[in-house]
Write a structure and sequence with these properties.
Blueprint: H1 5-16, H2 21-37, H3 48-60, H4 66-83, H5 108-116, H6 120-132, H7 136-140, E1 147-148, E2 153-156, E3 165-168, H8 174-193, H9 205-209, E4 228-229, E5 236-237, H10 243-257, H11 265-284
Antiparallel strand pairs: 1-2, 2-3, 4-5
Helix pairs in contact: 1-2, 2-4, 3-4, 5-10, 6-11
Length: 294
């Protein structure tokens, strides 16, 4: 089923429209689930009744979250709109309002405690998340060329909303980043000696940069331990480590620290924002008295 012409046509359409690999995997997963739930009927032969029955199954039997239900609906609507070329309207289900929850925030001491139980590149990744307020995918996608230790700046390429930005690099991380660069350089030299060394680049960029894609500057700061085949262009390259690899290490660090909070990679970003807000507000109103204290 994973190699059916229909699913491959969806994959091709998603890649043509430059959807991320993560979105591609999620959409294909939910489309497969939709087809399997409806006894492997082709979506072209189905409509509102089958879609509504599937969404009802997700909500009642699988008890998925509102965000997950919306994700499944997005995938199904995409297929009908762009593959089958048929608009789906008058569904009894609309996009569910996502539950609003207060994000988990750590104290400075808690954040430092958790990070202290990480080592090597995982320590450095967590330090960047907390020290810069980076998202996990932004940290993992950093390339050597994006980090300027001399000027203490860091370039984030295509962050959320596909926006580029510069941010300040904590001086305390300079030495650790230098060490990480040495590790990347040694691994890259080994790749080159074995006839490889191409960086994992966005689709079609290899044709633009050619052998320049073998430069150290294009390598990821946190490269995977193994080489892989590029998902789009088919060449052998070295990608960055996977999010789940970091999550496993973070989970262990949280357990060791015995901090009774639900801590995820994004928690460091929330904590960074809170610390920054508190510092700015505190410095701005340091000589101001609350009306109730007068």
């Amino acid at each position: 089923m994973s190699t059916s012409p229909f699913l491959e046509s969806i994959r091709t359409e998603l890649r043509t429209r430059r959807y991320s690999i993560k979105t591609e995997k999620v959409y294909l997963y939910w489309i497969k689930q939709f087809i399997l739930f409806n006894d492997k009927k082709h979506p072209q032969d189905m409509g509102n009744a089958e879609i509504e029955r599937f969404l009802n199954h997700l909500a009642v039997n699988r008890q998925v979250s509102a965000a997950t239900q919306n994700q499944a609906l997005c995938a199904i609507i995409y297929v009908y709109k762009h593959i089958i070329r048929r608009e789906i309207s008058d569904l009894r289900y609309s996009f569910t309002k996502r539950e609003q929850s207060i994000p988990t925030v750590l104290t400075h001491e808690e954040a430092k405690n958790i990070i202290s139980h990480l080592s090597g590149q995982y320590w450095l990744i967590a330090s960047l998340l907390y020290g810069e307020g980076l998202r996990i995918n932004e940290a993992l996608k950093l390339r050597i060329k994006d980090v300027n230790i001399q000027n203490n700046t860091l370039f984030v390429f295509r962050g959320k909303g596909k926006k580029d930005r510069y941010t300040l690099l904590p001086k305390s991380l300079s030495h650790s980043l230098d060490n990480q660069f040495s590790i990347v350089k040694a691994r890259h030299q080994q790749d080159l000696s074995e006839g490889y060394g191409l960086a994992s680049l966005p689709p079609a960029l290899l044709r633009k940069y050619g052998n320049a894609a073998k430069d150290l500057s294009w390598q990821y700061v946190f490269p995977s331990s193994t080489r892989c085949t590029h998902l789009y262009d088919g060449y052998i390259c070295r990608h960055h480590i996977h999010e789940t690899t970091f999550r496993k290490q973070l989970r262990k660090a949280v357990l060791i620290s015995q901090i009774p909070k639900q801590v995820k990679a994004h928690t460091f970003r929330h904590t960074f924002a809170t610390e920054l807000y508190t510092h700015v507000i505190g410095s701005r109103f340091i000589h101001t008295t609350s009306p109730i204290d007068r």
